[in-house]
């Protein structure tokens, strides 16, 4: 059982880890660099999907008429079919290989394998994994159906705003009314221009 004071303490501890005095600038820099790389490689991933789909459709001579493409080709890019099955198998195999390699490194250095914390992972871990899978599923569906130029910025915008709202309301990372108002204005500004970008895509 965790009471309200302990929950607030955990929140404060999470904020302190990211913004504490000791090495806070380095932590902030590493966090920012990681965020930049996450956005970069996420965009590259979806760009590869778009380019690969275009190449395959061009090779089949059905780029301008997707309905005329062979059934096998359409199924290869069917996010609601074999695509996610292949992705799940690949993710499972890669995870298994990484666990084996990590275990080998730990054994070589004569260290025990870290505790897997199965009791902790049973509920919150499964919820986190479920949310991640759904997010990845809908991201791929959006890119495959709507294209890379609009859907990737839209995905990143929603992620950015959601993460910001979570930080404001749950973690309380920003308390200044002026900064909260500035962030809210910037978030609304970004959302408006994503909508305008999507309308430009439709009109073109």
UniProtKB/TrEMBL annotation:
Q: Where, per UniProt, does this protein localize?
A: Membrane
Example GO molecular function term? carbohydrate transmembrane transporter activity
Bilayer-crossing regions: 83-105, 117-138, 180-198
Please provide the record's keywords in A-Z order: Membrane, Transmembrane, Transmembrane helix
Q: Which organism is it from?
A: Polarella glacialis
Membrane topology field: Multi-pass membrane protein
Q: What domain of life does the UniProt record list for this protein's source?
A: Eukaryota
Query: What is the protein named?
Result: Uncharacterized protein
Gene Ontology cellular-component terms listed: membrane
Q: What is its main location?
A: membrane
């Amino acid at each position: 059982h965790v009471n309200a004071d302990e929950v607030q303490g955990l929140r404060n501890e999470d904020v302190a880890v990211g913004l504490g005095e000791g090495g806070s600038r380095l932590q902030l820099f590493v966090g920012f660099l990681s965020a930049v790389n996450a956005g970069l490689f996420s965009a590259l991933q979806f760009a590869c999907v778009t380019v690969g789909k275009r190449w395959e459709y061009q090779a089949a001579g059905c780029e301008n008429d997707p309905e005329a493409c062979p059934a096998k080709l359409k199924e290869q890019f069917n996010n609601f079919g074999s695509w996610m099955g292949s992705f799940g198998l690949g993710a499972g195999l890669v995870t298994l290989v990484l666990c084996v390699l990590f275990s080998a490194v730990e054994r070589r250095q004569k260290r025990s394998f870290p505790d897997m914390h199965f009791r902790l992972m049973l509920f919150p871990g499964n919820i986190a994994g479920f949310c991640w899978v759904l997010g990845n599923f809908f991201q791929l569906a959006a890119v495959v159906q709507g294209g890379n130029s609009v859907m990737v910025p839209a995905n990143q915008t929603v992620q950015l705003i959601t993460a910001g709202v979570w930080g404001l309301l749950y973690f309380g990372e920003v308390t200044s009314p002026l900064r909260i108002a500035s962030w809210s204005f910037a978030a609304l500004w970004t959302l408006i221009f994503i909508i305008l970008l999507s309308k430009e895509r439709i009109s073109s």
